[in-house]
Design brief:
Blueprint (H helix, E strand, L loop, with lengths): L2 E8 L5 H11 L7 E3 L7 E10 L3 H12 L5 E9 L8 E8 L1 H17 L12 E7 L18 E4 L1 E10 L2 E11 L8
Antiparallel strand pairs: 1-3, 1-8, 2-6, 4-5, 4-7, 5-6, 8-9
The chain binds adenosine-2'-monophosphate.
């Protein structure tokens, strides 16, 4: 049966481009050792699904819409360049701040909804981030003065998206398969 590699994520904000460019300038010395995500491909992953049957896409979207329909929109911002392990970084990301309590609840609800339709639970703790680049081969050491070196991008999130990911030699190519709108009438007050 035909499958595709899929994940659930928040789309990149348009306000990200100058921040992305500033991060890239800031890490210019490491450029040869990093493979940068295309700016339009940057996303905030909520749930990596792996290979899914194409026939399951409507089921996944229905489950996403049920969760999104009881989640309010939220205001987020990027808050500096970072990495899980800055001394031996395999990925470089932008930290995400703002209304992350709503985001974390959304991520946990997506995780539960996907588990109920047959996907495995993610073992790793959720850490809100936007991956900008990955090390080409060996891990890189990031400069120590990371925070405050790039401006913040402020953005509001009013939907989540189901993406497909096609692995190509030049890097993954992402396509949006469908959206699930967050509900203004849910949550807050
Ligand atoms: P990240 O960059 O936010 O960490 C699409 O492939 C996205 O799913 C990636 O950008 C990555 O998110 C996440 N991802 C990829 N492979 C994964 C895996 N094996 N397990 C968990 N998440 C993965």
């Amino acid at each position: 049966m035909a499958t595709l590699r899929a994940f659930v994520a928040v789309e990149p904000p348009a306000t990200l481009v100058p921040v992305y460019q500033a991060a890239r300038r800031f890490l210019a010395d490491l450029d040869a050792r990093l493979r940068w995500v295309r700016p339009e491909g940057v996303h905030l992953t909520l749930k990596f699904l792996g290979n899914v049957k194409i026939a399951s896409v409507p089921v996944i979207l229905r489950a996403m819409r049920a969760v999104a329909g009881r989640t309010p929109p939220m205001a987020l911002r990027t808050s500096g360049v970072g990495a899980p392990n800055p001394d031996r970084a395999r990925v470089v990301w932008l930290e995400v701040g703002g209304e992350t309590a709503i985001l974390s609840k959304l991520q946990a609800d997506v995780e539960d909804a996907m588990f109920r339709i047959g996907f495995n639970k993610e073992e790793r703790r959720f850490h809100p981030h936007l991956t900008l680049a990955r090390a080409r081969s060996r891990a890189v050491r990031l400069p120590s003065e990371l925070t405050g070196t790039v401006p913040s991008a402020h953005f509001s999130v009013d939907r989540i998206s189901l993406y497909s990911s096609e692995l190509r030699p030049g890097g993954a190519v992402y396509n949006v398969l469908g959206h699930a709108p967050l509900s203004r009438s849910s949550g807050r007050g």
